[in-house]
Amino acid sequence: MIHSTIEKEAAINQSKNLLKLLVISSDEKIYKTIQRALKQAVNMKFDVSWATNYQENNLGQYDILIIDYYLGQDTALDILRRPSENRHHLPTIVLFEDLDPALFSEAEQAGALDCLVKNQLGSQLLERSIRCAIRRPLESNLPDIEPEDDLPQYYAALEQRYSEQATELAYIKSVSEDEHSRRQELEQWVKESLTRRARQVQTVTYIAQKIATTPKLDDLFMQVVNLVQQQFGYYHAHIYTLEGDYLMLKEGTGNVGQMMKAVNHKIPVIALKSLVARAAQTGYPVLIEDVTHDPGWLPNSLLPETKAEIAVPIKLGEDILGVLDVQNDTIGSLDEEDQILLMGLCGQIAVAINNRRLDDRRQEAEDNQRRLIQELDAFAHTIGYTLRDPVSLIIGYTELLRSQSGLSDTLHEYLNSIARNGLKMSNIIDELQVLTGVRRAKIVPKPLSMLRIVAEVQQRLAHLIQEHDAKIIVSEYWPAAIGHKPWIEEVWANYLSNAIKHGGQPPRIYVGATEQSDGMIRFWVRDNGPGFTPEEQAQFFTEFTNLSQRRVTEYSLGLAIVKRIVTKLGGEVGVESDGIPGEGTIFTFTLPKA
Fold first, then answer.
1. Which of 98, 103, 167, 357 shows the smallest number of beta carbons within 10 Å?
2. Domains along the chain?
3. Which CA distances in Å does 280 have to 74, 110, 116, 248?
């Protein structure tokens, strides 16, 4: 009897022995956890099965049971306390949600050989618990042997049991020591990894800040390669930009980088043996930990120590802007961690490159616009002075001819038309001169006596007022504003002359000012003309626009001058009209309050 017990225990302790284990639980996750853990068992092998409920007639094929405490209406204690022939010699372990000593004791009294907590299940704990659970019923057979029947045999079995227990304890101690050592190594590795990652993130942040404050692209490329090499300790770094069908070297570290840059080093995008070209073609990083065994690697005679290389595309969305290439002089010294860091850095480089290019284009457009404006101003100035004298002669000769007697009525009408158009041309020349002067002039705004300015403008337009039988009603309330008197006179002259010429029959014009809550004064001129549609109003205040309405065209240059004057003085212009005949139009401009 003793020999059979020892032989059975020895058979169980063999590492290649297969134990059939049944997990009874309604939670499949528990079964999966136990299955995964026991696959890692060192000294025993297991065939793990799963059942969602307890069925007594199926237990005979298993060597051990693991029962979840909660099983629907019953608990594991209810099952253990229930009389059973099939389960009588079957070792049973009970699983609990939490550590509960009182409940553990109750389970062991009911027949459980061990109690475990679910969230603490692991390979070593499960294996150790199963070994102990199997051994306990075997050891319980020893007291049935009467020492006086076969004392040497009894002591031999007892000595065998103690020897095996000592071996088990030594194994458990060894496992614990190994586990403790591995845990310390893991903790040290995690600590070093976190420290290294923090240092790398700090370095990437530092590089990104340097990139963000570098204004020019050439300086940006130099900052990138030098900082990447210095901060991460790489053997070499260089950066390419995609220019048509080639990747052009923009900057490289050290003397080698300067030599390659001096000869305009470039790589065709379709190159077969080039990590840089491959990264540009695919849009994905290319990492080679040992370039000596990669058939697609293209060696560079200027960099003979290269053993590992990584090429990372510089992408903005799906657009490839270039490639950052890094090389090291030790096999395996570049890994996925370097790749992740460089990918993040290349994203910031892509944004920086795009911003610099947009700034360069904007600056170029502004320079072109500035040159064009200067040329237009010079042209307008030249044209004005060139045409002024011929136009004056035309008007003068027309007046002379009109004073001659003997001319027919038809000829007088022709002369009047020539005179009117000559005056209109003269006004246009004057407006061009004002427009050019406003653009170039630098003035200091001063408080204005607006009522006096309006009166002077009325005197200036006296002939026009008389010709059209116009009446101007001027408000008595004029809050003080700041501006430039000669320019504001042109604004009022333009608004009032338009109201007189295009107002009602006869024109009735109202002029006034309103103080606004935003610190601005709103000045307005309201006529009694036919008004304008929204489409016509949208065409006002535009310079040199091909206007579709003839009567709108007559306003265009003068209103463009008004807008330029008012804008330069810090105000805004506006127009309001319902397009109803007789309701007229209101033209406005604002100036800062004095």
1. 98
2. 2-144 (3.40.50.2300), 210-355 (3.30.450.40), 442-592 (3.30.565.10)
3. 65, 70, 56, 12
